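User: Hello, can you help with two protein structures?

Assistant: Certainly.
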Amino acid sequence: MKIRTNILTAFFVVFASMGGACLLALHGIGQLRQDAKVALDADDLVLSTVQVQQFLTDVSATHQTDGFNDAQHWADEFAKTTRDLQTLLPGDPVLATLQPTFDPFYSVGKKMANAYLSQGRAAGNFLMKGTPQQPGFDGLSDQISAKVDLVRNAAVKRLRGQQTSETDIVLLVVLLAAIFSAGIAFWFADSIVRPLRNLKQAAEGIIKSVEAMNKMTREVSSAADEQRKGGQHIAESVEGINRSAKEAAASVAQISHATGGLQSQARQLVEAVSLFKLSDGAEGSV
């Protein structure tokens, strides 16, 4: 159970660290995407400004009024892009001045084109060049372009700084991941491998004990065999003694029988001798 807990803890810490790194990376990526979009939208503002200027200039030069519709289309695109940028960067002071600077530029441009159409070149040139006190179409174009450049340059600067920051963060995360991985490896070896090694040593001790017990069992079994063989020898000896005793008993019986016969013969001999003695007495008396 302890090993399982250690493994789960190690994986949880690793995944939590990876999750934090991913969240940090996602936040950085989101900021990069926003700054990139701001820079692209600023390019769209530049394009819209140039297109408005180009179509109104074409109307002034060619007297073809279709260019007014095209200029209006790009003026609407400028307004839409400006609103998108204000959503991305709410409260940005430069963005707040874009539309108020564009509107006079577009208004003077349309007046310039109409002056070329209805009043001639001189009237149109006057509105194009303007005066030191009242900028003309070209001067207003420079103003709106300068403001758009400010927005774009700020976005590009943030984008580059964010890239550098993200690179530093990635390097830091990699370094911390390496250090953390080394620590996890050491902790894993200390908390998991060492108990497993101890378990292996305990198992080896149990195996040695079992082997010693088996050896003892074999020795006891061998001793039992020797004892059994000794018992067999004793039984055989006892049987031999019994056999000898029986043979001795038979010999004793035979000796007793022979002794009885000898005793009978001795009595007969005594009796014969007695008779012989009586016969000698009788002869002496005669």
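That covers the first. Now for the second protein you mentioned:
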Amino acid sequence: MVAEKKKKRKLKFKVKNILILLAIILIFVGVIYYILQLPINNIYITGNNILSDAEVIDWAKVDDYPSFLRTSSKEIENNLSNNNYIEDVDVNKQFGNKIEIKIKEYKVVALINNDTQVILSSGDIVSNDYGLSDVPVLCNSVSDEVFNDFVKKFSKINNNVLRQISQIEYIPVDVDNMRFLLYMDDGNLVYITLTKINKINKYNDIKDKLENKIGTIYLDSGDYVEVRKDRGAVNNSSSDTSNTESNNNQNSVDSNQETTTDTTNNQDNNGSNDATDGNNVSSNTNSSNEDN
């Protein structure tokens, strides 16, 4: 009897231990599952100027804020690398279910084909998906032998200067097949060659020395300026033209008013004369009848 009781106690002990162990395992599994399901809490994005934060998140395919642990940094980087505008991307996962995305975008060199396409610093020509407009327009085609150099050199122009260029025209000459003419927003013209492209980065200093004048700046050879006109004279000319047009319009109105007045007077006089003549005719007719 004693032996049987001991066996029963041992069996109960084993069952109890097994149940406790199973409970611990279930709790452990539940905790692991819960942790795996925890979503990304915050996404920090830096370096993006063309793409918006929402577009970066969409391209990264984390717009639904999936599981933090199940989402790999490499996967996000690969997704973002599929965008033509992104040159490089670095993704770091941080404590607190945070993800940091560092973006490096290609520089947009110029717009082409009625602003529907852009030339990137990578040399690729891609669709203008983001409606870019604050970059210069390339007016004509660049020869194949010069195109790569054109992209490489123009990518070195500072953004604050590049945004002041309205149009770019390729105008090679016999002695220089890398010559370009830049039409600036302020009315200045700049001749530049690709071998001296760094000089355009000093444009703001050159512009300040022109003071209130508009000129043609030759940076391709000689580094000199030809003043074409005074900016004040241009403004005055526009004002004088406007005043002249206004005066002409006023004179036209006055002339029309005088013509209308004269016409009205003539009509009144003619009407009066007709009435008088009619009375004379009537009088003459009556007199003739009486004589008869």
